[in-house]
Hints:
The protein has 172 residues and is an alpha+beta fold. The protein has 3 helices and 12 strands.
Amino acid sequence: MNKFITLSCFCFLLSSCSSKVIPLKGTYPETPIIQYSDNSVDKVWDHTIDFFAQKGLAIKIIDRSSGLIISDQTSLSWTFEDRNGKDYSSSKWVAIPMILYSGTNKAVQPSSVTGEWNVRIKADGSRTSINVNLVNIKARFTIESYNSSPTYTHVQGRSTGVFEKMIFDAVK
């Protein structure tokens, strides 16, 4: 009888703490996002480094000979989608799936969303290509009633193209 009560309590806890992930439905830019500049590789490189410095984005790997810049895990501005697959905010850098508490259908709000920006700059004939890719998107959730320590999870987020446009505008 004791085992039955313990098992029943455990099953109740699992069902009350479960959640439902609503996958992204919207249309997002295919990654990597590539833009071309008529400026030289050196000029685009310098402007990109300036952009990272001005935005306070820490660089984990920088290799000018291969044209590669990889940021540290960076805080991302994020948004959810509405039920029609449209972003709630068109100014955010990334859209993430909504996670709903089962039973209440309330969205779990992440305390942070992070990712790494990979930028590759290289000559492409008489132009310079700038290749930007967002990888390793992670969200941090804290569910106070269940566990007071934060839980990190990889999410299937998608870049909205806003950050990439900022880079492309900076290196024109």
